[in-house]
Amino acid sequence: MDDLIGIGRFSRMSRLSIKALRFYDEQGLLTPAWVDPATGYRYYRRAQAGPAEAIRALRAIDMPVGEIRDLLADDDAELTGKRLAAHRERLRARLAEQERMLRFLERLIDRGGNVMPYEVTVKQAAAVPVAGLTLHTGLATIGAAIQQGFGTVVGALGTAGVRPAGAPFVVYHDIIDEKTEGDVEICIPVPAGTTLPDGPVRYHEIPGGPVASTIHRGPYQEISPAYHVITAWIEERGAKSHGAPREIYLNDPQSVTPEELLTEVQFPIDGTPA
Predict the structure, then answer these.
(1) HTH merR-type domain: from which residue to which, for each copy (predicted)?
(2) Is a pLDDT exceeding 60 seen at residue 105?
(3) Is the predicted pLDDT of residue 103 greater than 80, yes or no?
(4) What would the pLDDT profile of 159-200 be if each residue is shown by its tens digit?
(5) Is the pTM for the entire model greater than 0.90?
(6) What are the structural domains of the chain?
(7) Rounded Cα gap, residues 57 and 35, in angstroms
(8) Are the C-beta atoms of 67 and 91 separated by less than 8 Å?
(9) By the 8 A CB rule, do 273 and 237 touch?
(10) Is 114 within 8 Å of 225 (Cβ atoms)?
(11) What's the angle, vertex CA 222, arms to CA 216 and CA 228, rounded to 5?
């Protein structure tokens, strides 16, 4: 018991807040050496300062709590090295993405908000039978949610033995920004009458009708100006949009560079503008 340190002193020693220490205890990352059964007060040993520092450092570089738990539980140095290497690659990819967004913002500012020319056309979109999955998400998680959502839909199609019948797309039912979450629907076209297994992925038909359309070439994260152009085009012509906009992914991000990605943005509209 002489080696035990109260949570307050251990917090100062480890530079982890008391709130963080309680959270890491709940998550199984850093369990107190002893908890007073009468008061619930937590005590730690000095030797736990090392793991506490590792947790603090790993959280500082955004390693998920679950991965930290697995890493600290490993006695295999080679496996630990692989886990750190995998996270290093994620950080590098994130840095590359942030640098790309900074270049995009520089171009946006230099060109007065216009990064690339967009030609808006009106066409008649056909009704599309789809395997669809609706997800509720926020701005910070939308990229991962869409990626995982497509995985779920592809898995359902595999179980049903059904092949996609067209380019995948996402329907944005709500405006999603830094303060507001909303629903998106992950869609993969399928043959009419497709039967899917029970689960969150459902078969239904996306209605057809006239749409205002444009093509965005480049990374998905730089697509916002295409929305600005289409909405301005619709307003200038006195048209009315109805229904949710959609992004149709015309090529495979696994096969082309981010600069070569092609995405069609469609806004359903009433009739044909003048």
Answers:
(1) 4-74
(2) yes
(3) no
(4) 999 999 999 999 999 988 878 999 999 999 999 999 999 999
(5) no
(6) 4-73 (1.10.1660.10), 121-268 (3.20.80.10)
(7) 25
(8) no
(9) yes
(10) yes
(11) 70
